[in-house]
Amino acid sequence: MYATPETGDGWITRLISAEETSFVVAARFAISPAFRKLAGGREADLVFAARSRLARLGINILPLGEPDFNRDHCDMELRILAAIHSYGIAAHLERIVVPGLRVGRLVFCPEENRLDSARIHGLIRNNTLQVPAGFSLDGNGYLIIRPQQQIFRFQKPLTPEEVTAIATHADGKDLLNRLQIRETVDHIELPPKDGLVTACSMFLHRHYVVLRNLDESLGFHLQATVLDPVSTRGTNVYLEFINRTEQLIINPSIAASVHEAVQVKPRARYWHGPTGDQPTPPEETGETGCKALSEVFDRLEAGPVRDRYSHRMVAVTRDPQTLLEGAAPEALWSQPQTPRDPRGGTELAAGLVAEGLELSTSVECGTQILAELPDGAKATLLLGYFPNLIEHTQICAAALHQRIARIVFRRASFEHGPFLSSRDHGRLADYEGLGLEVFWCNEQRGHLVRHVFRGLRGYFTTPDKVDRFSSCLIFAIYGSIKPLSDESAQQIERLLTNLRALFGNDIGILTGGGPGAMQQVTDVAHALGLMVGSSFIETVDQTTNQTAEFYQTFQARSRQARQRWFEIASFHIFLVGGVGTLEEIGLTLTDMKLGVIETGPIVFFDSSGGSFYWEGLRTQLDEMARQQRVPTWLIDQILMTTDPDAIPRFYKQALRLG
Question: What is the pTM of this model?
């Protein structure tokens, strides 16, 4: 895994002065010991990079003077102004330029890790670095980036509430993606004394790029100047230009230096390790960890009613390692609930949703023992089942006071086995927001996994694969539970081999995790050394594969919600499939049209060797385009083919890669 040497986002601490068109503020950046050791005494090599979402609003943030380091933080003065006047954001600045607003980060960009033109060209030729088509490399080692022939504009003037949400909310970028639509143009016209937002395609795996304003006659880029590895992957790598001259600029461009990123050593986090540390017992794997933890659960759940929903074991310990050595937890709840209600067990669980819980109903839950923990205990919570509604509220209350730091559960559901409900996924998001680690002792698969978010979606993976899951480039592959012929399987292998040749070894595939073609794709991917993930759905006609390295589970009623978890994929490939695949096609095309997922090439691949399977869909899409029921740009992103060698060529064309 590779990362940019940088601080986290700094925040405004106070307002220094306010003028008619700009604000001067003081900002603070937290400095880790590692960053201080790396950049200490080399302040001249630090670059301030403004937050991308603010730049996309046309807001420029300029550093004033040098950063002032003081132990574990650094202070800096910044000037904030609305630079793209046509966006009309100036009137909203006073609302969002307040203490607490996150403004950007400090990046260490030393000259010694900067690449020269020859090295950059070599990386581009062997596909280690993918840059926009039409690029140039000058004699000073600068990569000249030319954007795509498109601009981004707002459908309507933004309201104060929308600007505030974009600038301050965790999911503000998703709102921005929906409100800021793109428009294809023959040439980008950058008007005098104004600006615009455009984009390019770029894939950075082991390098970071710093945009440099060397020639203002070709446009001046806003201060969102650093493109990180891993996160810079796709078609919409935004570029924000302003024209500070009195003349019209046609097709602006920007120079960039390319730097070696920092290789990050993977950090395996185990359920029994102290929070914040990284214990690395070499003998432990997902399987051995599951076996040891299962023995702990067996000991804690010993009793005659262990297979009843009402027997929801809860245990708390501040030193999990002692449980592995046979010690008792600090607190243990192992008795059944005793509700004063004729409903019990699963009926009570269903009633919480279907009818609502009567306020007069007394329900005892084991998580009530969390109230006995002192604030800041950061204990580990062991649960027989994934939390229900009442347990969830008590867990959240304990997390707010840092009484617990980690949850380890044994069973996902009493009624649905290993499959989680939509409500469960919402609870997992709450735990992530509260900073809780979540582990699952998944005995059905025989391993212990950790829940990890990638963007807005979380998956389970073993602790040793967390970093690879977070960084790999993911392809979603959809298809049938019917097996492929040997010839078709060979075509799929060629397809995946082509993808690896184009994008490198650090890629993964995500499937529905069923048998047949999906299992064959999984097997081929593993043979090629690719990471494999699955998004399992509870069905009666499928068995789940047992070799996925990251996965998520969904109950049958969460079928459409499950599609949201495919959002982590950068590309979507549809193999021959049935009505389930047809539903996924409709959801994917709709999501792309609405800006829910990033615009990117979509491939319909038929390796069956018979009449072309997707011919009917091609006819339907052509007719929809003729009647203007689908955007032309979306049709341009679609390839239907039987040739696996045509797919990498199409990717380079659709992504406008050099």
Answer: 0.86
